[in-house]
Design goal:
66% of the residues lie in helices and 1% in strands. With 443 residues, the chain is mainly alpha-helical.
C-alpha cells in the first residue's frame, strides 16, 4: 500500500469536514456572484486601466493591481476572484488554527462567513470589500504563526504586515486603525497597551509617508483632492445649522435659501456634487470659481469649523448617527450598464440571496452600530485574555475595526454600510476567537 494512503487515513475527520465546508462556501460564492458585481466606483477604476491614468480619488494601487491580474478574467472577474479567494482563505486559515483548540468553534467560522452581512458583499467590487478581506487575511496569518518557530513565524508576520500596509494604500483613512492591527501582527502572543501606544504614532506616521511615496512618487498619481469632498460636506452642514453660507462663493438668493434649508441631509456629500436640485453648489465651487482643490476652500473650512464648532459637531453627529443606525445602502443590485435591467437574470441563487438580504435589511444585522457594538464587546472579552494569542487577536481585529468605524465621524462623506465592512468581518472573527481557551504547543 502506498505510504500516502496511510498519511491520508491519519488525517483527523474534522480536517476533512472543515475543508469540505470551506470548499462548499467558496463554490457557493462562485455560483452566486461570478463574474462579480461591477459598481460605479469599480467601473471608474477599471476605466483608468484602459486609459493608463492614475488618480487618488479611488486608490491608484487598486488600479495597478487590477491591471496586473486582469488577464486572469477580463472585467470584474479577476478582482472578484481575488476578493472571494482572500475571503475564504482568511476564514479557512483562521478555522484550521482555531481547530487546534476547539473544533466546534472552528466549524462555526465558515458557517458564520455565510452570514448575510458578510457574505452579500463578497461578490461586489468595492475597494472597501477588498480592504476588509485583506486585513482579515493579515490577521489570520499572524494568528496562525503566533506560537510557531521563527523560521515560519517571521515570514508570515512580514507578509501580514505587508497586507496591513496594503490595506492602508487601499483606504488611507485606515492609517489611524492600522497601528492596532500591526501591533497584534508584531506581538501576536499577547497584547500590551504600552507597546501598542509606543508603536501607534511612529506606525501611523510611517503609513502616511508610505501613502505619499507610493501614490505620488512611485505611481505618479494625479491629485484629485478627495479631502475636499469632506470640506464641501462640512461646509454644507455648517451652513445648514448656522443658517449662514459658509462657502467662499456667493450664491443667488434662491440658491442660498435652498442651501440653508433644503439641501442638507446627513447621508452623503453627493447632494452638493451631482444630485438635483443642489448640484449648483459644486457647479459654482468647482466649475465656475475653480476653488475645489485650492487653499481657498481649505481656508473656508478652517474658518467655518473654528467659528462654529457647535454647528460642526451637530453636522458630524447627525452624519454619524445615520451611519451607525440609519437604513443605508447595502448590497449593490443594479446593472450599471442598464439600471432598469436586473443583475444576473435567471440566476436563482442570486435572486434568493437578494430576497434574504431584503428581508434582513431592516434588522440590526445591517446596522453598522450593531457591528461596532460587537467589536467593542470583542475587545472587552479579549482584554480578559490579553496575555494569550486569542485575546491579542480579538483586541487587534476588533480594536482596529472599532477605531476604523469611529474615524468616519470626522472623515465620512457617505453612510453606505460597506464603509464599515471591516467591522463585520472583525466582529465575526474576533467573537469566535475570543471564546478560545489556551492553545496547545505545536508538536
Amino acid at each position: 500500500m502506498p505510504p500516502w494512503i496511510d498519511r491520508v487515513r491519519a488525517v483527523p475527520p474534522y480536517v476533512w469536514a472543515l475543508a469540505a465546508l470551506l470548499v462548499a462556501g467558496y463554490g457557493l460564492t462562485l455560483l452566486v456572484f461570478y463574474p462579480g458585481v461591477m459598481t460605479y466606483d469599480a467601473k471608474f477604476v477599471y476605466e483608468d486601466i484602459a486609459k493608463g491614468t492614475l488618480g487618488d480619488w479611488q486608490s491608484p494601487v487598486m488600479t495597478v493591481l487590477w491591471g496586473l491580474i486582469d488577464p486572469v478574467a477580463r472585467g470584474p472577474g479577476s478582482m472578484f476572484l481575488l476578493i472571494a479567494t482572500s475571503y475564504w482563505l482568511g476564514f479557512g486559515l483562521l478555522a484550521f488554527t482555531v481547530a487546534r483548540v476547539s473544533v466546534p468553534l472552528a466549524v462555526l467560522l465558515p458557517v458564520l462567513a455565510l452570514l448575510p452581512p458578510a457574505f452579500v458583499f463578497v461578490g461586489v467590487i468595492w475597494r472597501d470589500v477588498l480592504f476588509a478581506v485583506v486585513w482579515l487575511l493579515a490577521a489570520a496569518l499572524a494568528f496562525a504563526a503566533a506560537d510557531r518557530g521563527l523560521k515560519l513565524r517571521i515570514p508570515l508576520q512580514a507578509l501580514a504586515l505587508g497586507l496591513c500596509a496594503f490595506g492602508v494604500l487601499l483606504r488611507p483613512n485606515a492609517l489611524i486603525a492600522a497601528p492596532i492591527l500591526a501591533a497584534f501582527i508584531v506581538w501576536p502572543l499577547r497584547f500590551s497597551w504600552k507597546r501598542t501606544a509606543l508603536l501607534f504614532i511612529p506606525a501611523a506616521a510611517a503609513l502616511f509617508g508610505l501613502v505619499q511615496v507610493v501614490y505620488y512618487g512611485a505611481l505618479g498619481a494625479t491629485r484629485q483632492h478627495p479631502l475636499h469632498s469632506i470640506m464641501v460636506f462640512d461646509l454644507g452642514g455648517i451652513s445648514h445649522f448656522t443658517k449662514q453660507n459658509q462657502f467662499p462663493v456667493t450664491f443667488s438668493e434662491p440658491e442660498t435659501k435652498l442651501l440653508l434649508n433644503g439641501c442638507y441631509k446627513p447621508t452623503m456629500w453627493d447632494l452638493y456634487w451631482r444630485l438635483e436640485p443642489c448640484e449648483f453648489v459644486m457647479n459654482k465651487v468647482e466649475k465656475q470659481e475653480k476653488l475645489f482643490g485650492t487653499p481657498a476652500l481649505t481656508n473656508a473650512w478652517v474658518r467655518a469649523v473654528t467659528r462654529h464648532p457647535i454647528a460642526y459637531l451637530q453636522h458630524r453627529s447627525a452624519f454619524m448617527a445615520n451611519f451607525l443606525f440609519g437604513s443605508n445602502l447595502t448590497m449593490w443590485t443594479a446593472d450599471i450598464e442598464d439600471p432598469a435591467k436586473p443583475l444576473f437574470p435567471g440566476r436563482a441563487s442570486f435572486a434568493a440571496l437578494m430576497s434574504v438580504q431584503d428581508a434582513l435589511n431592516p434588522t440590526p444585522l445591517f446596522r453598522m452600530g450593531a457591528w461596532l457594538a460587537v467589536c467593542l464587546a470583542g475587545c472587552a472579552f479579549g482584554w480578559r485574555k490579553r496575555d494569550t494569542p486569542a485575546g491579542a487577536f480579538a483586541i487587534g481585529v476588533c480594536g482596529s475595526a472599532a477605531v476604523y468605524v469611529l474615524t468616519f465621524y470626522a472623515v465620512g462623506v457617505a453612510s453606505d454600510f460597506r464603509y464599515g465592512y471591516w467591522a463585520v468581518l472583525a466582529g465575526i472573527a474576533g467573537a469566535v476567537v475570543a471564546g478560545l481557551g489556551p492553545r496547545p504547543r505545536p508538536a
